Amino acid sequence: ATPNQPDASEPTSDSRRPIYKTETTGNYWQDAWIAFKDFQRLGEMPCARNSLLSGIASGAGVGVIRSMSASPFVASNWAVGTFMLISLGSWTVCQKNLEAERRRLARMVEEMPKRFTKQKDPEAGQDQHA
């Protein structure tokens, strides 16, 4: 990297989310096993559990309703499409809300010392005049 450009491995200050790099072992089955272990921890990931549950419930509902008037193939396409749309949409909204909350907390942390110094300065001025 040149002096003016940041290194690609280092996250920049303007990046919105951290970049996760996954090292591969070179062995397909070992990498697949590692991915499977990560999949088992899906419920611990922010927003994933609620988004997937919303998508499953919506997809099942639309699939059942659509199966009453269409073939099973068409109904399953509607179910999968609804699952994807609702899951991705709710995950995106949840991630956006989390990012906004993180920004609000960071702003509050930055402003906290300023509040204490503003409170102490007028007191110091009063003590000098008294």
What's the order of the H and E elements?
Answer: HHH
- How many DSSP-defined strands? 0
Alpha-beta content class: mainly alpha
**Percent helix range:** over 70%
Mean pLDDT across every amino acid position: 81
How far the N terminus sits from the C terminus, by CA atoms, comes to 59 Å
The number of helical elements comes to 3
Poorly predicted runs of 5 or more residues: 1-6, 8-14
Fraction of residues in β-strands: under 5%
Give a quick account of the main beta sheet: strands, pairing sense, barrel closure. Answer: none
Rough outline: flat
Cα-based radius of gyration, to the nearest Å: 25 Å
Secondary structure blueprint with pairings:
Layout: H1 28-40, H2 48-67, H3 72-129
Helix pairs in contact: 2-3
Verbal overview:
This protein has 130 residues and is mainly α. It is 70% helix and 0% strand. The protein is flat, with a radius of gyration of 25 Å.
Could you provide a short overview of the structure?
This protein has helices at residues 28-40, 48-67, 72-129.
Task: List the defining traits of the structure above.
130 residues, 3 helices
